[in-house]
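Example is below:
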Amino acid sequence: MTARGLVLLALLAGACVRLVEHQPALTLRDSASDGSSDGASERRRPDAAPRDAASAERQPLDLLRPDRAARSQALSILVTGDDGEITGGQLLPSGETWWGNLIHAGSWATVTSGGPTMTYAFLRYRLTLPLPAGATIASATLELYGHALTGGSQWDPQKHKLVISADRSADAAPVTSPEGNPGGAKGAPQTKPVDWASLVWQVDAWNASPNLAPIVQELVDAHGGLMAGAHLQLWLRAPSIYPEDAEVPFEDLDHANGRAAVLRLSWLEP
């Protein structure tokens, strides 16, 4: 070999030594990796951006748990007597027939006999889907098809409101007695009520309630979920008997128009 060739060989050998000295050690994990990462056991590189420890806590529930399916169901009154009214000591399973099968909720002061009375509306729904233990109720909305005020009702959204509660039962029984109202001798214990305040009553239109999710959540938590086929019964009334007549009317199942109250539920599975 010529002198020039020996010089080139020496230079090449020196370069290879420097390259080996600066090459990071190859670990077994590196050799097995195809570029994907194992989030549970990955060692972070020193130059990687630091994780925000609180970021996970700030994420919405559905982002933290994408496996939680969102479900919904719209429930209708199915049977005569599953909606109706109790007023003045009378059970009216088809509403007030003299007003064309309208249900009223509120209170009535000018009763000709028996004195002022609370007017209770009841609505009993059969669940088509179960609400399992651990479900998170996102929304529960009641929709009532409103009619014009009847009999001299002086409903005023600035003065009057309704309260809504439910029988605190895993499967609410039908109302069969005029004493079956909340607080009545045959009435069921009730959930914590939700106020329907500032209610501007819509005529010939649907009136949507505030979110009743706390009521349904209380039932789910109290009974370890509600089974498909179980019944949920809501009650609407005034918080107390007002000094003036104050009721709102809506259609019963037996009304000719067939626009009975609807309950819409949505929730996240556990």
Summary: The longest strand covers residues 136-146. The CA atoms of residues 5 and 11 lie 10 Å apart. The chain has one domain: 70-268.
